[in-house]
């Protein structure tokens, strides 16, 4: 069986299977294991990532420029690939910024967002020519001071915390009190106080949330984003007399992780953007309009693979104990923001066609009941040495997990 986007977004029973072993990038799992030398590992399918970005750019209006949020998966080879697929990068730390620059992505296509930037972060961004998405009045003061010290002008965009929120989001990042961005009602005063001899205001960043599968909610947030941008851009050109060169409208596109979740209707979003572009023609004329996505571009192109190292029965419950778990894949264990834990799609990677099924609990090697790979799942009967594969694992995997917890061996990563 070859891994494909369609397979990953349908339920497991719909997977076409011509052989019993899963393939990624034309290689069976057993060969991938030999490449990285051992389980556990993450494998990312280069072609699936390219297909995803191509499909999306073909669907979205031409005017939209796609930026990749490196936090979703900062594996260097993957970020290098992304540098050839998207128009820019969003980084969330100095380390991500250095990674982004070294791919050859032009500095003016890299934005650095996130609260709590240190003076060292800010100086590095100014030297690199990257645009700082400022998150507070205090941060602006730090940027102005650093620019003065360096005798360089800093590029900034104001990250705005709008009054509205992105409804039905896995993670809401706007509306109400938030550590992210400057409240929209504070922006007029902030604009008046900018020291334009030290900074160059490039634009606005309005990021409302993440992991959203509800196209209606995204449409509504985008509508409100354009309305707010109209006000902010008019105000800034009046106050600063300068021209804004970009508007980052956020992202929030989600992927289905659990049974009964459906893929996002991107066509509906693209159509809505097309009409918003017409409606706000004057606003967007001459502006780069940025959609900033992480997981949507990479999550479905990645799998996590570990191996069964023990099998046991405890009071009637079958356990598969694996050499990987929560310390490599926190999100799959249910401990990365889920309220109620649900299973990601999981298969026995070398027994896709196994006909004798068994109800199992799959756990990792950590001495904690939180180390769950799958709970009460019907799978082909597995033995020691078989592969347990977790799909939808290309985003917020290795780097979003407590890799040193219990000092277990590290996970490998491979883009193929
Ligand atoms: C500012 C910003 N941009 C982009 C992202 C990426 O979100 P996602 O991977 O869900 O697309 C996040 C996620 O928290 C974010 O905070």
- Mean pLDDT across the residues is 93
Give the domain tally: 2
Largest sheet: 8 strands, mixed
- Low-pLDDT runs: 4-17
Radius of gyration, CA atoms, in whole angstroms: 23 Å
Any overview of this molecule?
The protein has 416 residues and is an alpha/beta fold. The chain folds into two domains: 156 residues, Lyase, Ornithine Decarboxylase, Chain A, domain 1; 188 residues, TIM Barrel, CATH 3.20.20.10. Helices cover 31% and strands 25% of the residues. The chain has 13 helices and 21 strands. The strands form four sheets. Strands 3, 15, 16, 17, 18, 19, 20 and 21 form an eight-stranded mixed β-sheet that branches. It has an eight-stranded parallel β-barrel with strand order 4-5-6-7-8-11-13-14, surrounded by four helices. Helix 6 packs across helix 7 and helix 9 packs parallel to helix 10. The protein is elongated and about 70 Å long. About 3% of the residues have low confidence. Pyridoxal-5'-phosphate binds next to strand 12, strand 14 and helix 12.
């Amino acid at each position: 069986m070859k891994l494909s986007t369609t397979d990953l977004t349908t339920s497991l029973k719909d997977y076409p299977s011509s052989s019993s072993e899963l393939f990624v990038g034309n290689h069976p799992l057993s060969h991938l294991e030999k490449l990285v030398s051992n389980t556990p590992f993450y494998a990312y399918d280069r072609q699936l990532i390219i297909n995803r970005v191509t499909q999306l750019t073909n669907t979205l209006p031409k005017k939209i420029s796609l930026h990749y949020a490196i936090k979703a998966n900062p594996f260097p080879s993957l970020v290098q690939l992304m540098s050839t697929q998207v128009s820019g990068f969003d980084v969330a730390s100095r380390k991500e910024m250095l990674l982004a620059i070294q791919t050859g992505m032009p500095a003016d296509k890299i934005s650095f967002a996130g609260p709590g930037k240190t003076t060292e972060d800010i100086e590095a961004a100014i030297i690199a020519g990257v645009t700082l998405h400022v998150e507070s009045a205090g941060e602006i003061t730090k940027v102005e001071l650093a620019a003065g010290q360096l005798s360089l002008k800093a590029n900034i965009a104001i990250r705005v915390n709008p009054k509205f929120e992105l409804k039905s989001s896995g993670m809401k990042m706007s509306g109400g009190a938030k550590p992210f961005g400057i409240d929209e009602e504070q922006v007029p005063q902030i604009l008046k106080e900018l020291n334009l001899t030290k900074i160059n205001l490039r634009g606005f960043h309005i990021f409302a949330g993440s992991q959203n599968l509800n196209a209606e909610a995204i449409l509504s947030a985008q509508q409100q984003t354009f309305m707010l941008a109209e006000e902010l851009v008019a105000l800034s050109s009046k106050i600063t007399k300068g021209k804004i060169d970009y508007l980052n409208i956020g992202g929030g596109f989600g992927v289905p992780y659990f049974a009964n979740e459906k893929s996002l209707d991107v066509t509906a979003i693209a159509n809505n953007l097309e009409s918003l572009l017409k409606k706000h023609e004057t606003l967007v004329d001459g502006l780069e309009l940025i959609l900033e996505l992480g997981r949507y571009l990479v999550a479905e192109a990645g799998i996590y693979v570990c191996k069964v190292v023990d099998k046991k029965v405890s009071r009637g419950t079958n356990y598969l104990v694996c050499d990987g778990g929560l310390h490599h894949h926190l999100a799959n264990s249910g401990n990365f923001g889920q309220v109620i834990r649900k299973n990601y799609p999981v298969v026995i990677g070398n027994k896709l066609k196994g006909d004798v099924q068994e109800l199992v609990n799959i756990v990792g090697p950590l001495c904690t009941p939180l180390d769950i790979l799958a709970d009460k799942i019907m799978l082909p009967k597995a033995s020691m040495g078989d592969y347990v594969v977790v799909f939808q694992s290309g985003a917020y995997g290795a780097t979003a997990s407590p890799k040193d917890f219990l000092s277990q061996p590290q996970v490998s990563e491979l883009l193929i």
